[in-house]
Amino acid sequence: MRIFISLVIFLFSFNANASSISHLVGKVTNNLGIRDDILRYIETAIPNLTESSKYAVMKIAANQQALYYKVKSYAEASSLIVSSSVALKCLGLERSDDYEIFKTIEHMMMDTSERKEYIMNTCSSLFGHDGLPHKHVPKNELADRCRAKDY
């Protein structure tokens, strides 16, 4: 299984003044915590989403938004990264385009040069060479966790 490296691109909002990043957050008018344009992409541009694959995609998008703009601790960020990793693996059980969907959402999260620069600079200063937290989920456990939406 591929390693979920792309989620290295996240930030800790506790290092930034909330007002200084509020314009980066984007418009979020739903109770899911997903930026409106990304939610629209999920609901209209991804064909043939089953209930479980839609849940996984929404979980990834909500986790990314929280990682970029809401986390207050390394433990909280680690938990969201692991959750997104499992969600991507669950999505991959149903779809062959799982990684392309993830990458599209990731690119949408960094759709301005200001957002991209902010995220990249924060990631560099936060992680450096330490790498990401991860948790191996055995295949026999993965299907059960996906069915139970335990991620």
How would you explain this protein's 3D organization?
The chain is mainly alpha-helical and 151 residues long. It has one domain. 63% of the residues lie in helices and 0% in strands. Helix 3 packs parallel to helix 5. It is globular.
Terminal Cα span? 17 Å
Strand content: under 5%
Percent range of helical residues: 55-70%
- Oligomeric state of the chains in view: single chain
Structural class: mainly alpha
**Biggest beta sheet attributes:** none
Number of domains: 1
Order of helices and strands: HHHHHHH
How confident overall, as mean pLDDT? 82
Q: Tell me the radius of gyration.
A: 15 Å
Counted by DSSP, the helix tally is 7
Query: What is the global morphology?
Result: globular
Number of strands: 0
Low-confidence stretches: 1-16
Features:
151 residues, mainly alpha, 7 helices, disordered N terminus
List the helices and strands and how they pair.
Layout: H1 18-25, H2 36-45, H3 51-69, H4 74-94, H5 98-109, H6 113-127, H7 139-148
Helix pairs in contact: 2-3, 3-4, 3-5, 4-7
